[in-house]
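Predict the 3D structure for this chain.
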Amino acid sequence: MRENRECPPLARSPIMSGPLGEGQGRKPEMGGQSDSPVVPAKLANKPARGEAAHTRAGAESVEERGLAEGNTESAARSGHSAGIRAPRGLDRVRQVAERDKEVRFTALLHHVDVESLRRAYLALRRKAAPGVDGVTWEAYGRDLEANLQDLHGRLHRGAYRAKPSRRVYIPKADGRQRPLGIATMEDKIVQSAVVEVLDAIYEADFLGFSYGFRPGRSQHDALDALAVGIKRRKVNWVLDADVRDYFTSLDHGWLRKFVEHRIGDKRVLRLIQQWLDAGVIEDGNWAECEEGTPQGATVSPLLANVYLHYVLDQWAERWRRQQAHGDVVIVRYADDFIVGFERREDAERFQAELSERFAKFGLELKAEKTRLIEFGRFAAGNRKARGLGQPETFDFLGFTHISGKTGSGRFALRRITVAKRMRAKLKEVKAELVRRMHLPIPEVGYWLGSVVRGHLAYYAVPGNLDAVKAFCTLVQRIWHWTLRRRSQRTNATWERMKRLIDRWLPKARTLHPYPEMRFDARHPRQEPSAVVPLAGICAGGRP
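Done. Predicted structure below.
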């Protein structure tokens, strides 16, 4: 392991050491590089470079080099500031991280200056709920410069202390409650600024099939990659997997080990330790969090991605290179991931070994949501020959994926809105319309139009127009029903309703291109004339 030259190497933080074996020294199972999210061809079956290397220390590197080939094109950015270019100082950090996958960064906190804290503050949501101290975005900004200067001073002299998160619950689709941790305003600012720095390092490490909570990567990028992978690779079986209570199950000991692979600045390590140990306050009582990271905290998605990067991504990349006998396609978004296989024996062996590996790191596959199903271009014919029905479907990122056919009989991947999510959204819209029943119609129409536009912006993909039209029609009927309940002498005739719909609600239409078109446009190196071979969402295996 090498360290960068921004300052003399610092001793490893004593709070980060522990009895756990894996995570010490060199990164375990470094099986791949950070690739652009494109579908790969079948690669040579050989171990990744450096897999047999032993721990090295003492060597230092120089922070000068251009961007490495194959890494994600997006600059490291954070949260709502994804459209803001990272500072030039972080460009040097990024270049070192891309060039040397073993370097440990021993001086990072100086990148968190007043300007970065200001950017972090301005990137926060104005209407976000306050933490335990009750300080809102607006209140903190009344004396912003003085507050930021004071925060910066405390941060760099070691006087900053993380405060507990405020525990709140939101309903989940399955009827359970999802716990959230709302951090204080200063904690949000510091976490956002630190995440901006850490993104510059980890974006060079994360693999191409990892999409969740990463700058420049959206749910539709993951959906496109999955669609292209299923259509262009030999996928006959699909493992639909979900991790049980992932964010609340992260082992702090392993997480500290994983972070230490790249981060050697003990001041940054101390900050991360504070956020993990801050605990939560619920009903006025403080509770310690021995596992997991609070959902809702700015730093939680990054730490969760780091954890699965070492536990799942690198292991899966190495597994498919060394042990798979057929094609393997992987797409992961946060703790939800889909794995496609050419051969059933590969799929069953992968699932069994994955369960064992997860158990080692304190994770567990959610049995009720993890399934191995027959899916793909040959699934319908194979099941018909065995006297079985149509291929099963699977849900991923709000869409039900179906093995279908075109009019000419060729295989087509159909994606429609998950019915359960549509029903839940319509129920939510109805309840809100009843609450706004007696507000002025223009105010209600403006709000309802934003709801429909948001639904179209996500779900209006090719092949899903019927479901989108059904949603819009049901919203219109619910609005009409609500207007007629405003008074017994209602004048909300359907003729008047049509005028209101034309005025306030957008029409249903397809807004997204076909997955292959957008995928190929964003990753032109997959064209036949490209010099760089196809590489990306983890496909291939041994012949």
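The longest strand covers residues 165-171.
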